[in-house]
Design a protein that fits this description.
- The structure holds 2 protein chains of 2 kinds.
- The model of chain A has no long low-confidence stretch (mean pLDDT 92).
- Chain A has no helices and 11 strands.
- Chain A is globular.
- Chain A starts with a strand and ends with a strand.
- In chain A, 0% of the residues lie in helices and 48% in strands.
- By secondary structure, chain A is mainly beta.
- Chain A has strands at 5-7, 10-13, 19-24, 31-37, 44-50, 53-56, 65-68, 75-79, 88-95, 104-105, 109-113.
- In chain A, strands 2, 4, 5, 6, 9, 10 and 11 form a 7-stranded mixed β-sheet that branches. Chain A has a 4-stranded antiparallel β-sheet with strand order 1-3-8-7, with no helix packed on it.
- Chain B is globular.
- The chains are: A mainly beta, B mainly beta.
- Chain A binds chain B through residues 4, 33, 40-45, 48, 55-56, 91, 93, 99-100, 102-108, 110, and chain B through 4, 31-32, 34, 36, 41-46, 49, 51, 89, 91, 93, 97-105.
């Protein structure tokens, strides 16, 4: 079974530039999550999708971050414009829709904003 | 708001030692608790998932316990090996949106 795929793996941009990350979840997983992990901290949930609808985006900085999940499969996370404090690893995870099922994580995208 | 704390932040042990990692959470109304392993530059690998109705789960040399009423979980690693060196993260699923809240992790180093 293929795991959660993410690209790119690494990205370096200057502040005020824009960047986009892509995620392909495990086949059949209706729920998709984007997390931000700052160095030395645990991942923090940014947004949760159920199929192509948003379940929770309470911690997404909506003035600069946006995410979409067209057709309920792949998802993209965009930052525009980036700030220095956005430097982090962005993790995508997926799971079956019910609450008891565990989440499976992708390898992450390491973003450095200079 | 759920908060998860992991102690210690870092731990170094000689190979072969048994060890315990601790996790505490503030809101006992959880659906489940998961322990993850994270290697440098890699994503998270799920080690054990304990449902709220369970007391413990075991996988090989790993044993995780859950005491929901006191808001605590422990991850026991038996006969540690250098390959166990990684950061171990605890996460609890709670809230109406069933979101995962993570601790900051314990960075484990097993010395050969």
């Amino acid at each position: 079974e293929a795991g959660v795929a993410q690209s790119p793996r690494y990205k370096i941009i200057e502040k005020r530039q824009s960047v986009a990350f892509w995620c392909n979840p495990i086949s059949g997983h209706a729920t998709l999550y984007w997390y931000q992990q700052i160095l030395g901290q645990g991942p923090k949930l940014l947004i949760q999708f159920q199929n192509n609808g948003v379940v929770d985006d309470s911690q997404l900085p909506k003035d600069r971050f946006s995410a979409e999940r067209l057709k309920g499969v792949d998802s993209t996370l965009k930052i525009q414009p980036a700030k220095l404090e956005d430097s982090a690893v962005y993790l995508c995870a997926s799971s079956f829709p019910r609450g008891g099922f565990e989440q499976y994580f992708g390898p992450g995208t390491r973003l450095t904003v200079t | 708001k759920q908060e998860v704390t992991q102690i210690p932040a870092a731990l170094s042990v000689p190979e072969g030692e048994n060890l315990v990692l601790n996790c505490s959470f503030t809101d006992s109304a959880i659906y489940n608790l998961q322990w993850f392993r994270q290697d440098p530059g890699k994503g998270l690998t799920s080690l054990l998932l304990i449902q709220s109705s369970q007391r413990e789960q075991t996988s090989g040399r790993l044993n995780a316990s859950l005491d929901k009423s006191s808001g605590r979980s422990t991850l026991y690693i038996a006969a540690s090996q250098p390959g166990d060196s990684a950061t171990y993260l605890c996460a609890v699923k709670s809230g109406s949106a069933r979101q995962l809240t993570f601790g900051s992790g314990t960075q484990l180093t097993v010395l050969p």
